[in-house]
Amino acid sequence: MHFKLTTWNINSVRLRIDLVAKFLEEVQPDVLCLQETKTPDDAFPLKRLKQLGYEHIAIHGQKGYHGVAVVSKLPFESSDVRVFCNNVDSRHISVAFGEKAGMSVPLILHNFYVPAGGDIPDPELNPKFAHKLQFLDEMRACEPLHPRGDARHILVGDLNVAPHEHDVWSHKQLLKIVSHTPIECEKLLAVQSEGGWIDVARERIPMTEKIYTWWSYRAADWTSANRGRRLDHIWVSSAMKDMIRDFTVTRDARSRERPSDHVPVTTVLEL
């Protein structure tokens, strides 16, 4: 079974629904995971997405901040949300695919929006950074996030950490910048290691090559500066390693009118 999956921090789904629609029409993923939807569930643009053929939608949103959603052509067996750091702040949703989607072996998909962490990389001075570190620790401690044996799991989202040297434009200059500090990288990689997760991007693209999925709005000309970071990730369980067929970053989405500062990241799996 050919399975195409995209993750995208859209930075307001209502503001950028036309960009989402254009992407869905052009790329036709089976499943689109969105982060930072920034809308309560009753205002989510369900009708527009269903008109495009994405009739199965799981949402966990709130007014103005955060929010995650799974938009799918394939039906779910179930959906669930988990709370981290005792905050009901709409940062996780998961769905299970099975027989309804034509899958003989169940597939669990987790969609995350990890806290950004503010600007000061010191948990004593910055509660937002402390929250981020605690969130990553709780992800590591969360047993359902650690697939074992032949279990088919996928974890995607804006994880807000660029963990490797060539996931940022300058490793040396960003070591004290939130998203690439050693403690964040260590904690995210600990989550990956605990679950035996395969980082699809780095499975397909050598560690020596730069990969970015985010470019700051602050850059006057983001294309020429190209000071990006890889904050958006797709991980698959070890049982799915040999199912990976493709990986792409839709860089040109950053050049569209009123874009998100993140771009879509897509994988193709043969299930």
Break the fold down into its secondary structure elements and pairings.
Layout: E1 2-9, H1 17-27, E2 31-35, H2 46-51, E3 56-60, E4 68-72, E5 78-80, E6 92-97, E7 107-113, H3 127-141, E8 152-158, H4 171-174, H5 182-195, E9 198-199, H6 200-204, E10 214-215, H7 222-225, E11 228-229, E12 232-236, E13 244-249, E14 265-270
Parallel strand pairs: 1-2, 7-8
Antiparallel strand pairs: 1-14, 2-4, 3-4, 5-6, 6-7, 8-12, 9-12, 10-11, 13-14
Helix pairs in contact: 3-5
Per CATH, the class reads Alpha Beta
What letter string, H or E per element, gives the SSE order?
A: EHEHEEEEEHEHHEHEHEEEE
- Overall number of structural domains: 1
CATH superfamily: Endonuclease/exonuclease/phosphatase
Question: What share of the residues does DSSP label as strand, in percent?
Answer: 25-35%
Q: What would the CATH topology be?
A: Deoxyribonuclease I, Chain A
Label the CATH architecture.
4-Layer Sandwich
Q: How would you sum up the major sheet? A: 6 strands, mixed
- Spatial strand sequence of the major β-sheet: 3-4-2-1-14-13
- What is the overall pLDDT average? 97
Radius of gyration, in Å, reads 17 Å
Derived structural class = alpha+beta
Notes on the protein architecture:
The structure is a single chain. This protein is α+β, with helices and mostly antiparallel strands. It has a single domain, classed as 4-Layer Sandwich (Deoxyribonuclease I, Chain A). Helix content is 22%, strand content 25%. It contains 7 helices and 14 strands. The protein has a 6-stranded mixed beta sheet with strand order 3-4-2-1-14-13. α3 runs parallel beside α5. It starts with a strand and ends with a strand. The relative contact order is 0.16. The mean pLDDT is 97.
